[in-house]
TrEMBL record:
Coiled coil: 588-645
Domain Histidine kinase/HSP90-like ATPase per the UniProt entry, residue ranges: 24-176
Origin organism lineage: Bacteria, Pseudomonadati, Bacteroidota, Bacteroidia, Marinilabiliales
Keywords from the UniProt entry: ATP-binding, Chaperone, Coiled coil, Cytoplasm, Nucleotide-binding, Stress response
Family annotation (InterPro entries): HATPase_C_sf, HATPase_dom, Heat_shock_protein_90_CS, HSP90_C, Hsp90_fam, Hsp90_N, Ribosomal_Su5_D2-typ_SF
Protein name, UniProt field: Chaperone protein HtpG
UniProt-annotated binding residues for ATP: 31, 35, 76, 81, 96-97, 166, 328
GO molecular function ontology, one term from the record: unfolded protein binding
Organism from which the protein derives: Draconibacterium aestuarii
Length: 684
């Protein structure tokens, strides 16, 4: 029997392995099984070259759990090792520069793996002792057993072993006994090993018998050795891609379509990416792309490997050019990773453009499920934005789809304003904004549907790109003002008249912390609505963006600014104005006359102050001016209170405001109930 010490001088090796090598101890089984697969593949390669004469037709890796012995054993019938190879590959642990490496990387042990071949030593994260029983494929080789209890000391004995290959026996430590559960091992194998290239066997197939699941005589193979992404696209049908998706995501909704990646220059990359249906609320699960290295699962956190917006996709990427285990900082700086990211970006855009060109009708039918993904890409990746403009679609309220160029041609003549800006009218909810949409369409305008959560951000980006184009929501103003064709404006009421009428209608606007109302007066024609509520485009857009990204609290916390536009020529509005004159006419005339007198007095005193220093103005004049201003404020308040009181008691005024609120979906609860009852009273 040989005894000795592992070929590193630092005794910090095993504490590093146990505590820092991986954040997730589950990975030990992936490492050991992957090594077994590699050994098996190497022997198959030698056999294919005629350098090994043995039978490799039954090549496999077997995982066994023995709860009584508290062991997990991974066995392969691969290339095996001689005593000299055990000494070289296990005892000396990547002997080239091992000591220097330990000093350099002990605080960032994730950088170890892949560079220094320490996968085998991950077994010590969960084991108090590890045995390696191995027999080389070389003719006349003697089997040996290597044992180590987690200290630098080891033993190496000659043993009897009939078959070529290696058994790794891990004696699980007390603190890691959770790994001695069958379900735990099954879960790890399913996560990391279900697509390895050599059959991996764990236990037996089960069947129902007498009301319980029992083992059969058939081995349970946990993996598919030839998953779809390893095959050529020409050899696969649509159903093959769908079946593979179901294997990846058994509970997932069927995807829209897929992209098959197959690159061998300037790097190796294979994979299949699926476009899921992304709903309008943007409640998507990222980490749905699985990253593999030679069919070994690495991670499903692929940020940095694929562009941010592509993390919305599902599927598999496999590249031997991405190290199996590296720190996230390494991934972000690796040149191959950056090339892969750039290539995937281009490949996805090219595939979407091809689908658009080959079958536009099918592409349009899937647009509503695709649009958030594409918009997200356009907002976050400039190169994707440039490519996407070839297939980006705009949908109008008629359900018709247009490319950007097509839509510009459609609306340019009729929807260009006096400043030569093309106005793109849009609705975020056709049902709620139906009245405004219909008014725009009756005017001969076309209206887009931009109803997803990313639309406000995309609108801003498009307006920055195309400075002669503006997006205007249909309910941001009355239809006459949505696209201003000339500078002529009708001024029906003076400022003083508006000041007198505003309190009447302001008094019947609802008091709501989420909304503030500004009363305006316009001539919308006798057949127009008596009142229209519009939403300030800038403020509403800022609030929409704030809600989408959870920031911009300055806008998000402010009440939404709404304009109550009163149609001065509508018969019902005139009815209210006549009632106001009849009820308050004399009082208002007296108040107005008194106000005018006070203002005239104030004007005389202000005129007398001109050119004088403050100390030169007589004290009596100052006191008189202060008194007049106080009286003026009181008179104006009295006038406002009378107008407000009239408005609150006028059922027609309240009914018109409620109708405008109802048209905007803003009349709810008790206010809606009162409106219904008032409607019955007014009809009687």
């Amino acid at each position: 029997m040989q005894t000795g010490k592992i070929g590193v001088t630092s005794e910090n090796l095993f504490p590093i392995i146990k505590k820092f090598l991986y954040s997730d101890h589950d990975i030990f089984l992936r490492e050991i099984v992957s090594n077994a697969v590699d050994a098996t593949q190497k022997l198959k390669t030698l056999a294919s070259k005629g350098e090994y004469k043995g039978d490799v037709s039954n090549a496999k890796v077997v995982v066994k759990l023995d709860t009584d012995a508290k062991t997990i054993t991974v066995s392969d019938n691969g290339i095996g090792m001689t005593a000299e190879e055990v000494e070289k590959y296990i005892n000396q642990i990547a002997f080239s520069g091992a000591n220097e490496f330990l000093d350099k990387y002990k605080d960032d042990a994730n950088a170890i793996i892949g560079h220094f071949g320490l996968g085998f030593y991950s077994s010590f994260m969960v084991s108090e002792k590890v045995d390696v029983i191995t027999k080389s494929h070389k003719e006349g080789s003697q089997a040996v057993k290597w044992s180590c209890n987690g200290s630098p000391e080891f033993t190496l004995d000659e043993v009897e072993k009939e078959d070529v290959g290696t058994d790794i026996v891990m004696h699980i430590s007390e603190e890691e006994k959770g790994f001695l559960e069958d379900s735990k091992i099954s879960g790890i194998l399913d996560k990391y090993c279900k697509f390895l290239s050599v059959p991996v066997i764990y236990g037996k197939e089960k069947e129902w018998k007498d009301g319980a699941q029992v083992d059969t005589d058939k081995d349970h193979q946990v993996n598919d050795v030839a998953p779809a992404w390893t095959k050529m696209p020409a050899d696969l049908k649509d159903e093959d891609y769908k079946n593979f998706y179901r294997k990846l995501y058994p509970m997932g909704e069927e995807p829209l379509f897929n992209i098959h990646l197959n690159v061998d220059y300037p790097f190796n990359l294979t994979g299949i990416l699926y476009f899921p249906k992304i709903k309008n609320n943007f409640e998507v699960q990222k980490n749905k792309i699985q990253l593999y290295c030679n069919q070994v699962f690495v991670t499903d956190s692929v940020e940095g490997i694929v562009p941010e917006f592509l993390t919305l996709l599902h599927g598999v990427i496999d590249s031997p050019d991405i190290p199996l285990n590296v720190s996230r900082s390494y991934l972000q700086s690796d040149s191959n990773v950056k090339k892969i990211s750039s290539h995937i970006n281009k490949k996805v855009a090219d595939r979407l453009h091809q689908i658009f060109k080959d079958n536009r009708e099918d592409f349009e039918s899937k647009w509503d499920d695709l649009k958030i993904f594409i918009e997200y890409g356009m907002l976050t990746e400039e190169k994707f934005y440039d490519r996407a403009m070839k297939f980006f679609m705009l949908k109008n309220t008629e359900g018709k789809y247009f490319t950007w160029e097509e839509y510009e041609k459609l609306v340019k003549d009729n929807q260009t304003d006096k400043d030569k800006n093309t106005i793109y009218l849009y609705s975020t909810n056709v049902e709620e904004q139906f009245t405004f949409v219909e008014a725009a369409k009756n005017k001969g305008y076309d209206v887009l549907v931009l109803d997803d959560v990313l639309a406000p951000h995309l609108i801003n980006k498009l307006e920055q790109k195309y400075t002669d184009k503006r997006f205007v929501r249909v309910d941001s103003d009355v239809v006459e003002n949505l696209i201003k064709k000339d500078d002529t404006t009708k001024e029906e009421l003076t400022w003083e008249q508006k000041q007198e009428l505003s309190p009447v209608f302001q008094a019947v606007c609802p008091e709501d912390k989420d909304y503030s109302f500004i009363v305006d007066f316009q001539d919308l024609g006798e057949t127009g609505s008596p009142m229209v509520i519009t939403r300030n485009e800038f403020m509403r857009r800022m609030k929409d963006m704030s809600a989408a990204q959870g920031g911009m609290s300055m806008y998000g916390d402010m009440p939404e600014s709404l304009s109550l536009v009163v149609n001065t020529t509508h018969p019902l509005v005139k009815k209210v104005l006549d009632a106001k004159d009849k009820k308050l006419g004399k009082k208002l005339e007296e108040l107005t006359a008194e106000l005018t007198g006070k203002k005239d007095e104030i004007a005389v005193l202000e005129k007398a102050k001109e050119g004088k220093k403050d100390e030169e103005v007589p004290v009596a004049d100052k006191e008189k001016l202060d008194s007049l201003n106080a009286e003026l404020v009181k008179l104006e308040e009295t006038k406002r209170e009378q107008l407000s009181d009239f408005g609150k008691k006028n059922k027609v005024a309240k009914q018109m405001v409620d109708l405008a609120l109802l048209a905007n979906g803003l009349l709810k609860g008790a206010d809606l109930d009162k409106f219904v009852k008032r409607s019955v009273e007014l009809i009687k």
